[in-house]
Design goal:
17% strand; alpha+beta; 4 strands; Alpha-Beta Plaits; globular; four-stranded antiparallel sheet; 162 residues; binds uridine-5'-diphosphate
Length: 162
């Protein structure tokens, strides 16, 4: 078999983030957004919606059958959330780093979950964990015309990337 060539240079990614109902209720939407903005990520899609149970069940389909599945569906559906798409080089892992570990009691201080959370079941924000889940989640929550085209490149990028 021929080895697949690894693309050279930085890879721009889109990732799906969602401020969960506890983040909205606690007045932390702006506090969270500012952390991604000042890191250097580009906000390319955003809407507040109250997701249905079926949207959340589809979003968390990989967890169906687990003990916490019903709890996460109750927590996430029927309350307003802020769904967002953020773009940048390595955006998926960069956003996961800004968010912190799943369990807020283990998450590093300086991360969103480390700074503001107390329990896994109330961990404030979701972020896609890889390229496949990012593509799937963006397609589930957004229509293509709700996402800024890749041709809209922020002027600041020349100072973020060499
Ligand atoms: N979750 C939970 N209890 C658990 C594990 C997960 O309530 O024992 C919830 C939690 O809100 C978490 C989400 O299910 O963020 C999805 O879990 P995952 O392991 O994918 O964590 P994440 O990618 O959000 O860090």
């Amino acid at each position: 078999a021929t080895a697949q060539a690894v693309p050279a240079g930085p890879v721009v990614q889109d990732t799906f983030l969602c401020v969960k109902p506890d983040g909205v209720e606690r007045g932390l939407i702006g506090e969270m957004i500012v952390r991604f903005e000042r890191k250097g990520l580009q906000l390319v899609g955003m809407k507040m919606i109250t997701p249905s149970r079926s949207l959340i069940e589809t979003h968390y389909a990989e967890h169906r059958g687990k003990g916490f599945f019903n709890g996460i569906c109750e927590y996430m559906s029927g309350h307003p959330v802020v769904a967002m798409v953020w773009r940048g080089v390595d955006a998926i892992s960069v956003c996961r780093t800004v968010i912190g570990a799943t369990n807020p009691t283990k998450a590093a201080m300086g991360t969103i979950r480390g700074d503001f959370g107390m329990q896994t079941g109330r961990n404030l924000i979701h972020g896609s964990d890889g390229p496949e889940s990012a593509a799937r989640e963006i397609g589930l929550w957004f229509r293509p015309e709700e996402i800024t085209p890749a041709s809209v490149v922020p002027c600041i990028n020349k100072w973020l990337y060499e």
